[in-house]
Amino acid sequence: MPKCPWCGKEYPDGQQHCPTDGHALAGSEAPAEPDSKWQPELIDLGQVAGAFSFEEGFSRPDWKVISAAIRQQIAGPDDLNTAWTEAARQWVMQLRSDLGGDYRVNDSSEFILLSALGGDKNRAILNFAERALDQICAGLKDAAWTSGHGKHVILLFLEEDDYYQYVSYFHRDGTHPMTGGCLIRKDYAHIAVPYEPSGLRQVLAHELTHNCVVHLRLPLWLNEGLARMFERAVAGAGGPILDYDLKERHLAFWNLETIQEFWAGISFHKPGDSNQLSYSLAQIVLTLLLEKSGDWGSFLKEAQWGDAGQTAAMDCLGADLGEVMSTFLGEGDWRPRRKAMVALWESNKKAP
Question: Which residues contact 223 (CB under 8 A, 6 or more apart)?
Answer without folding.
Answer: 210, 213
